[in-house]
Write a structure and sequence with these properties.
Elements (H helix, E strand, L loop, with lengths): L20 H16 L23 H10 L25 H8 L1
Helix pairs in contact: 1-3, 2-3
Length: 103
């Protein structure tokens, strides 16, 4: 007697697991950082850049405020007293991913 083997549409043929949503978020944040932020900040976010300070560990509140408005959140003491950071309003939908990558 022969056996019948079937597969479903949801069955993956890849031996690697699909990335979790957290992994995908971090990966997206890395792309955003590498394509936008390293112009001023270091490619290694834990190190100071030529213009911008190290940003590893930055809170969502800080990133949202700085990236979208170029301002600091109320009560925040900046690492560098400059007004060089431009606004990046087109990154509004990427703040969560950027936060995930930097943390």
């Amino acid at each position: 007697m022969g056996s019948v083997v079937g597969c479903t549409k949801n069955q993956s043929t890849s031996s690697e697991p699909a990335p979790s949503s957290a992994e995908a978020l971090v990966a997206r944040g890395k792309v955003v950082y590498q394509t936008t932020c390293i112009a001023c900040h270091n490619a290694d976010p834990s190190k100071d850049g030529g213009v911008g300070p190290a940003v590893a560990g930055a809170s969502r509140e800080l990133l949202e405020s700085r990236v979208l408005t170029s301002k600091y959140p109320a009560g925040y003491k900046p690492k560098r007293e400059t007004n060089l950071m431009p606004q990046f309003p087109h990154l509004k939908g990427d703040i969560e991913a950027l936060t995930a990558y930097l943390n």
